[in-house]
Amino acid sequence: MSLPPGARRIRDAFASAEGDGRRVLVTYLMAGHPSEEDATDAADAALRAGADILEIGVPFSDPVADGPLIAAAGHAAVAAGAGMATVLRTLRELRRRGREHPIVAMGYLNPMVAHGVERTLAELRDAGLDGLIVPDLPAGEDPRLERAIGRAGLGVTFLVTPNSTEERLERTIRASTAFLYVVPLYGVTGVRQSVAATTGPLLERIRSRVAGRVPVAVGFGVSRPEHVRELATVADGIIVGSAIVAAQNDAGAEGVASLVTDLAAASTLVPA
Amino acid sequence: MSVLEPLLSASRTRARRDARNETLPELRRRVERMPPAPRFEAALRYADRLALVAEVKRASPSAGSFDAVGAGADAVRDLALRYADAGAAALSVLTEPTRFGGSDRDLEAAAPIGPPVLRKDFTVTPYQVWQARALGAGAVLLIVRALDDVTLRSLLATSAEAGVDALVEVHTAEELDRALACDATLIGVNARDLDTLDVSLDRAFELLESARSSGATLVAESGLATLSDLRAAADAGAHAVLVGTALLHAPDPAARVRELVDGAPRRAPGPVPATPRRSMVKVCGLRDTAGVRAAVAADADLAGFIVAPSRRQVAPEEAGRLAQGLGTVQPILVFRSPSASELDDAIGAFGGYRTPGVQLAGFDEPPPWLAERAPALPAVIGVVHRPTSVRSALRLAERWYAAGATHLLLEGAPATDGGGTGSAAPLDVARRLNRILPAGVAGGLDPTNVAAAVRHARPALVDAASGLERAGQSDPRRIARFVSAARTDPTGADRVDTRGRYGPFGGRYVPETLIPPLDELVGAWTAARRDAGYRADLARLQRDFIGRPTALFEVAPTALADTARTDVRVFLKREDLAHTGAHKINNAIGQALLARRMGKTRIVAETGAGQHGVATAAACALLGLTCVVYMGSTDVERQAPNVRRMHLLGAEVRPVTTGHGTLRDALNEALRDWVANVETTAYILGSAAGPHPYPDMVAELQSVIGREARAQLLERVGRLPDLAVASVGGGSNAIGLFRPFLDARTRLLGVEAGGRGDGLGDNAASLGLGSPGVLHGAFTMLTQTEDGQVVEPHSVSAGLDYPGVGPQLSALTAVGRLEVARTSDAEAVAALHRLTRCAGILPALEPSHALAAVGRLLPSLPADAVVVVNLSGRGDKDLDIVDRFGGAA
Fold this sequence. Notes:
The structure holds 2 protein chains of 2 kinds.
Chain A: H1 5-19, E1 24-30, H2 36-48, E2 53-57, H3 68-79, H4 84-96, E3 103-106, H5 109-115, H6 117-126, E4 131-133, H7 143-151, E5 155-157, E6 159-160, H8 166-175, E7 180-182, H9 199-210, E8 216-218, H10 225-231, E9 237-240, H11 242-266
Parallel strand pairs in A: 1-2, 1-9, 2-3, 3-4, 4-5, 6-7, 7-8, 8-9
Helix pairs in contact in A: 2-4, 2-11, 5-6, 10-11
Chain B: H1 4-21, H2 24-32, H3 40-45, E1 51-56, E2 59-60, E3 64-65, H4 73-85, E4 90-94, H5 104-110, E5 117-120, H6 126-134, E6 139-143, H7 149-162, E7 165-170, H8 173-181, E8 186-190, H9 201-211, E9 217-221, H10 227-235, E10 240-243, H11 245-248, H12 253-263, E11 280-283, H13 289-298, E12 302-306, H14 316-323, E13 330-336, H15 340-350, E14 357-361, H16 370-373, E15 380-385, H17 390-402, E16 407-411, H18 427-433, E17 440-442, H19 450-457, E18 461-464, E19 469-470, E20 473-474, H20 476-486, E21 501-502, E22 505-506, H21 515-530, H22 532-546, E23 552-555, E24 569-574, H23 584-597, E25 602-607, H24 611-623, E26 626-632, H25 633-638, H26 640-648, E27 652-656, H27 663-676, E28 681-684, H28 694-702, H29 704-717, E29 723-728, H30 732-738, E30 747-755, H31 766-769, E31 771-775, E32 778-782, H32 807-814, E33 818-824, H33 825-839, H34 845-857, E34 866-871, H35 879-888
Parallel strand pairs in B: 1-4, 1-10, 4-5, 5-6, 6-7, 7-8, 8-9, 9-10, 11-12, 11-18, 12-13, 13-14, 14-15, 15-16, 16-17, 17-18, 24-34, 25-26, 25-28, 26-27, 29-30, 29-34, 30-33
Antiparallel strand pairs in B: 2-3, 19-20, 21-22, 23-24, 31-32
Helix pairs in contact in B: 2-6, 4-5, 4-12, 6-7, 9-10, 13-20, 14-15, 17-18, 22-23, 23-24, 23-28, 24-26, 28-30, 29-30, 33-34
């Protein structure tokens, strides 16, 4: 199977981290929040502080999969007029500044449908995007759309959850060209005190099913270096979202850089 | 080497590549959900002058590139738009990329403009025919020189199947013979030799002349530039000319179109009736009261009484007596080769109660005496027996219509046959004929095969007699099932498919966590609705807890508006009398019973006006379930009485402050709660919206409204209503009323909140003013910005201000089954006051929108119209708002 170029770049990042004895650190930021410039600076800072992949949120009015922090960031961005165009400009600016890391967009379906799916995908790719996470698109729901993403040269990541059946798990693994996103809990994005106790067994089950076909990253509720350290033993990548947005809310790009530095350090595997 | 060969091989390669992105079965599935393709051949054949097909292309091997068409699909759209405005009867768009600079996007851009579009390309595989249809084309091009007979026939068959016309292009007499032998009806005579690129108009005119007697629709192509060329083409028998290069070389191409159209020779095509949006249904062979009652209850269009010798023969006097019970169903006397006096005598004997229509079987062609009688008859059905080819059927059909027929029926049985022999309906001929003019089918149709026949042939009329009987008697159940099945929407707008969609609308666009619980819900709901225990529990609670059936109450038209129309009868379906004061309880009880069956102990729900919250809280109190209701903080304030009721019923009300603090935010929050607690919790969604199976489940639970109304009206006025009206927010009361009328002739009107105007954010009119998008798990119509941000709607009524709408209502609107209107805040408040004062009923603000719309429509309704309005809830909850509104006004 030939992978879309964007998916290839994302997988290369996983391979190269592994070569360095690290897990991939994916950090999330909302485009246009609190302003386009600030979001761009924060994303830039995250990448320079050691994030391997940037996940950029596309502002949307009805983010059903997101918890209070990211939902509020999205609502504020929408209220300030941000949208798909903001994401495109942010991507171009990050590329202009020389950030060559893989970037994936986390965006709900509706803004893409409104712009025209094929057109949006082409514009995102041309602006420098590598992959896409669409939280309200479960694998298999819209095969044409899945193919359109691949045809545009972008990788795609689907989510699996603790209640995914073996059949859905298999379908999701097959459909994910970039990496598999494991949500180890029931619920929305957000900061949590600890990693759910069920995460380890869940990841074991998923990894045995994946059998190396696609990198496995875990997100939702991951906020502290100790979470990252714990998950580094069971996942190929760790995704941190709300905690980064919280750090940005508290101390802007510097806050983001400082948290990412700590998280990146925690994502390095300690030799046994 | 010929010019053609490399183009054909490039075309084959393209088709193979495209089929990797979307497979043929996927493409076909998509096409089958689309509304019918624009009629290309009919537009040319029945134009009032020589029709001009204006062609858009960027280049051609003979003329090089054209500066008149810029790069990008927008340039094509602009030019096509100007051609259409200038009077082009149809368009032709080159999609061939290698030598003509075309693209499929160009066709997509031109298709929605209006005139039917020919996909001008080198069609060599069935895939490309389906693709043309998917892109919006009305016709494909089949070049005889490029195709052997087997392929040509197969591509013609595929075109028929895909529902597009096929322009079969010939250049020589041999090619013309081959095209005619394949029963092509639309033939293009190309003056250009595709091997040498030489053009000879004289040869083309000779060929047209020789094709004339075939009865085919003829198009002259290539080399035509002047009005005298057009006149010569018309003289040679052409119905249309296709002009491309001559336009693009003109200084102003659109102006040149205008000159050619204005100067084109006039023609006088015979009369051809409009094609109905869906098949009309004739129930034939009636001979007793039970059959007549069944035809009325099923709301057939036409009811046939066979006066010709037959096993089902009835005397015209008896037919006249029976027909008095038909209401608005048109009676038809069915004859077999009658003389003029036999016809006159039978119509006389039928009686003066009303004039019957007639069906004339057994003729080879229309009888000469028909023309003078037809104008006085309400319907004349001409029968074409056992058509042997599409072209011969077309010729006969046009003769029948010229003689005054209003309908045409293609019969499987020969003219000599007494009918009822079970000869299969000629569906393949009908399918192609119906692309050109309206034609019905008869022969071997019954309740089990009629939906497939309609999907296959899209006939203008379906007719059955023996298929509606059981042991030689009219069978009311078969009649009901036949009419209902015949009216099945071919695009799937009327029923959900296995993927949770109504045509393109619906689906399950939700986070992965919700897929397993939605699957579980689909399974539980499918089992429950078939389970006698669940159904008995539901029926008992509907009767004893809700108080069903709710009353159907007639009010004077003046209770809705100042009007002189005292003939119109307005009936209110009194859902305001349902327990807890609105229709919402119908759904809440059904879902709460289901949740208990599934072993769930906790319920979450969202509410806007509070009616669904109250209904759910009541159902949970009754069934011993924990209940959490999410309610926007804005709504908590404006619907305080309902919040207090929920508290009393033991529910926890969680105000939602995120977003705008209204219904959609409450829905988002309830979904989040469900995501986090799926194992113990059921989510009772209050509207026929959201991810599958909610739209279908809620609609089914609310359909009790329409089922009761249908039976009550039949009993009270002896027929089904002309118009059914409901307000539309998310749409549960509307689909609940409408669904049982989808297979009837009843007009359906959904009334949205027009708020304070048509601006974005000033109303909640997602069907009337919105655009398609994805919200709360479904692909449906939304009020949104161009950037895809969902806009907070506005309405004086908290129950209507939802930015989306149920996917089935979107689908029904898209196919034209549902009409949509808007009522402003002020009109709704006025309607509330008026009904309260004139009828002693205080309606909620939501149904007041529907009442106001009916008031506006009164002057335009037919005489003695029967209207049913869903009075979906009572207005006690709205007193504060109405008071405040009155003060502000």
